[in-house]
């Protein structure tokens, strides 16, 4: 990661460097292998079991090294010490790496896996009985397939809940501007409650509307960061003008949708409003703001669970949008 660190800093001079999570939070995240908890639920248990297993084997290898250092061959001893030094270096890097740097979110979580790679290399230098090897192989196989299974189940769920967005594409005309308002960013269960997952797949789902038809989608959560090649100009930057987010804001919540401010500053009319999530579950201020925006608009599409709704706003004189009243075939 060090070359990426230097490149990021050189291209974003003056951008803030924010340490982010505390040492204790980083220790807990690393100990739980939280980067593997993508789908939530069972992933947390699997990641914790994998972490405890590897840390236990690390402790055993260190004790063996201390006890048998006099009898170990010189090359084997040197290799194990070098591996432990690399492990310690990767842990130190994980603890000092900023969570925000170079104008973007570098996320120390991405460094959590590196110490565990060194643990595996250290274990590869040990000798085990056939029964222990078989047990380790079985444990690795079970945890790998369990993580794969939870990931596939999660992806199937997300894919099914993305279906309404594919239908929305048929209602949006050419040369139009679409504002997605992401009220709920995680998939939901049968009762409509958000599933506890670290992934938020709906943030960029509406960007697929830009794939054809000369459309512009105003919500791109990462497009305002300096280390991305395509960004909004300051005078048309929707995160600040519409949602009142300051630069480098790390949150994902908002209580205002200021279309008037955006249209006045940019001169770009917003033709469509795409709501993703249930407006009735929002705070009163945001709920009232959404009601004021949708009241004069025409609803073109609503999913069965009412979590995806598309509205066509009144046509403005400076708009190049060619709206569709009926869905495209």
User: Residue share in helices?
Assistant: 40-55%
Instruction: Estimate the strand proportion.
Output: 5-15%
Number of helical stretches of at least 4 residues: 9
Spatial extent as radius of gyration? 25 Å
**Could you list the spans in which at least 5 consecutive residues all have pLDDT below 50?**
none
What is the H/E string? HHHHEEHHEEHHEHEE
- This entry's quaternary arrangement is single chain
- Overall mean pLDDT stands at 84
Largest sheet: 5 strands, mixed
Name the shape in a single word.
elongated
Q: Ends: how far apart?
A: 47 Å
Main sheet: which strands, in order across?
4-3-5-7-6
Which structural class do the helices and strands define? alpha/beta
Kindly state the number of beta strands. 7
Q: Topology, please?
A:
Layout: H1 2-11, H2 23-31, H3 42-67, H4 74-96, E1 100-101, E2 104-105, H5 113-124, H6 130-168, E3 177-182, E4 216-217, H7 238-241, H8 259-266, E5 272-276, H9 284-294, E6 298-302, E7 308-312
Helix pairs in contact: 3-5, 3-6, 4-5
Please tell me about this protein's structure:
The protein is α/β, with parallel strands linked by helices and 329 residues long. The protein is 43% helix and 8% strand. The chain has nine helices and seven strands; from the N terminus they run ααααββααββααβαββ. The strands form two sheets. A five-stranded mixed β-sheet has the order 4-3-5-7-6, covered by helices on one side. It has a two-stranded antiparallel ribbon with strand order 1-2. The radius of gyration is 25 Å and the shape is elongated. The two termini are 47 Å apart. The mean pLDDT is 84.
């Amino acid at each position: 990661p060090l070359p990426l660190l230097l490149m990021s800093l050189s291209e974003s001079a003056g951008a803030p460097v924010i340490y982010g999570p505390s040492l204790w939070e980083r220790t807990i995240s690393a100990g739980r292998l939280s980067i593997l908890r993508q789908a939530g639920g069972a992933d947390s248990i699997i990641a914790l079991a994998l972490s405890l297993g590897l840390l236990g084997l690390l402790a055993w290898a260190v004790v063996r090294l201390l006890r048998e250092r006099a009898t170990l061959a010189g090359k084997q001893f040197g290799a194990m010490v070098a591996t432990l030094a690399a492990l310690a270096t990767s842990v130190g890097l994980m603890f000092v790496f900023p969570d925000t740097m170079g104008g973007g979110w570098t996320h120390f979580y991405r460094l959590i896996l590196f110490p565990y790679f060194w643990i595996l290399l250290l274990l590869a230098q040990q000798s085990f009985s056939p029964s222990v090897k078989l047990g380790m192989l079985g444990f690795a196989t079970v945890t790998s397939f369990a993580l794969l299974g939870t990931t596939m189940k999660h992806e199937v769920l997300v894919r099914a809940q993305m279906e309404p967005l594919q239908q929305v594409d048929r209602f949006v005309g050419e040369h139009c501007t679409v504002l997605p308002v992401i009220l709920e960013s995680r998939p939901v269960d049968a009762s409509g409650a958000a599933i506890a997952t670290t992934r938020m797949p709906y943030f960029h789902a509406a960007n697929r509307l830009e794939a054809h038809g000369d459309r512009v989608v105003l919500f791109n959560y990462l497009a305002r960061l300096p280390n991305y090649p395509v960004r909004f100009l300051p005078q048309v930057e929707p995160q600040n003008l519409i949602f009142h987010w300051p630069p480098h804001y790390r949150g994902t919540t908002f209580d205002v949708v200021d279309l008037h401010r955006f249209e006045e500053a940019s001169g770009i009319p917003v033709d469509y409003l795409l709501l993703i999530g249930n407006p009735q579950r929002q705070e009163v201020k945001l709920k009232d703001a959404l009601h004021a925006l949708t009241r004069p608009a025409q609803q073109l599409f609503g999913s069965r669970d009412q979590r995806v709704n598309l509205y066509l706003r009144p046509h403005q004189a400076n708009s190049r949008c060619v709206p569709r009243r009926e869905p495209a075939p």
